[in-house]
Amino acid sequence: MAKYFTYEERCELQGYVKAGMTQREMAELLEKSIRTIRRELIRGKTALKAAHFKTYYEYRAKTAQKVYEVNRKRKGRKHKLLSDAQLMQDIEEAILMKDYSPDITLGRMKLEGKKYKVSICTRTLYRAIHQGLFNHISNKNLRFQNIHHKKEETAIKPKKHPIEKSIEKRALSILKRKQFGHWEMDCVLGKREAGNALLVLTERKARYSFIFRLQRKTQEEVIRVLDMLEKTYGEDFKKIFKTITVDNGSEFLDYESLERSITGNRKRTTIYFCHPYTASERGSNENYNGKIRWYIPKGLDIGVIPDRYIWETQHRINDRPRKILNYHTATEVIHTFFENIP
């Protein structure tokens, strides 16, 4: 015998009431006690208007179900978050105004030494948002909705590069992210017909990135950006950009031109190629590209986006605290590197 009425049972009960059955008969058919039937009839009691405007009362399954759901939500003790209005306000401000995730919000509060009446974990905060405890934020305000897409298997067509340029030949210390100065590079495409793109360079240890506009997704444009960076940093370029790991896109094929310095035939950096169709070997770069899509959606013509907006997007993402950086920002971490360039 089920303890609670289901909606289907309430609909059955509504039919029995209309048929004029007694409470004992209804209890036998639904396998409930008479006392349970009596309470259920009170729960679903609904005021209705007759044709002559006289009010009468009748049992309605929808009314009873709605009352049951409301009462069920009120069961249990009051959520501890509700006892700290300041914490709830600061959480809403961080998620809405600073574009933080719930985990980053709590991690940054801890890093900054903020004290509140109650202490909660990330899972509790996600649950509170899902339950609708906040007035101004809901699941719609969260960047990630835990949607996973099944990866389709793709036939690998390897590109031919010298074996010494394979990511397999890259030093183990680079893989372990023990040093600054090792970067990943990729392009974020705009509107297909426009042909423009963004060039994104991501430092592996700090997760800091530069974003540059490309008029066309070509090797000449990529070289132009690297030349500009070399002119900006001068002799420090080789210390800042020790290696750059790229995919097998046509814009990166002539690795010798990418490595060649503007001051002659000497080498300014070292290029390594990922395995074909293995974006995970540039994980930091791909993660950053995903965040760029928050602000510059697919299909948007990058040519019409102001330079200032691209610059603000770069800084907004770099100034976002990261759990993997112990809730520091990529900007804070990269500054320690630039301050200690020998």
Shape: elongated
The topology string of helices and strands comes to HHHEEHHHHHEEEHHEHEHHEEH
The beta-strand count equals 9
CATH superfamily of the largest domain: Ribonuclease H-like superfamily/Ribonuclease H
What is the count of helical runs? 14
Strand order of the largest sheet: 5-4-3-6-7
Unreliable parts:
none
CATH fold node name of the largest domain: Nucleotidyltransferase, domain 5
Helical content (DSSP H or I, runs of 4+): 40-55%
Distance between the termini: 78 Å
> Average pLDDT value?
89
Largest sheet: 5 strands, mixed
Number of domains: 3
**The CATH architecture of the largest domain:** 2-Layer Sandwich
Strand coverage percent? 5-15%
Helix/sheet category: alpha/beta
Using the coordinates above, name the CATH class of the largest domain.
Alpha Beta
> In angstroms, what is the radius of gyration?
31 Å
What does the secondary structure layout of this molecule look like, with pairings?
Blueprint: H1 7-18, H2 23-30, H3 34-43, E1 45-49, E2 55-59, H4 61-74, H5 85-97, H6 102-111, H7 122-130, H8 172-175, E3 182-189, E4 197-203, E5 209-214, H9 219-233, H10 237-240, E6 243-246, H11 255-259, E7 270-273, H12 283-295, H13 307-318, E8 321-322, E9 328-329, H14 330-339
Parallel strand pairs: 3-6, 6-7
Antiparallel strand pairs: 1-2, 3-4, 4-5, 8-9
Helix pairs in contact: 1-4, 2-3, 3-4
Please explain how this structure is put together:
- There is one protein chain.
- With 342 residues, this protein is an alpha/beta fold.
- It folds into three domains: 7-74; 80-141; 163-339, Nucleotidyltransferase, domain 5 (2-Layer Sandwich).
- The chain is 41% helix and 13% strand.
- The protein has 14 helices and nine strands.
- The protein has helices spanning 7-18, 23-30, 34-43, 61-74, 85-97, 102-111, 122-130, 172-175, 219-233, 237-240, 255-259, 283-295, 307-318, 330-339; strands spanning 45-49, 55-59, 182-189, 197-203, 209-214, 243-246, 270-273, 321-322, 328-329.
- The strands form three sheets. A five-stranded mixed beta sheet has the order 5-4-3-6-7, sandwiched between helices.
- α1 (7-18) packs antiparallel against α4 (61-74), α2 crosses α3 and α3 (34-43) packs across α4.
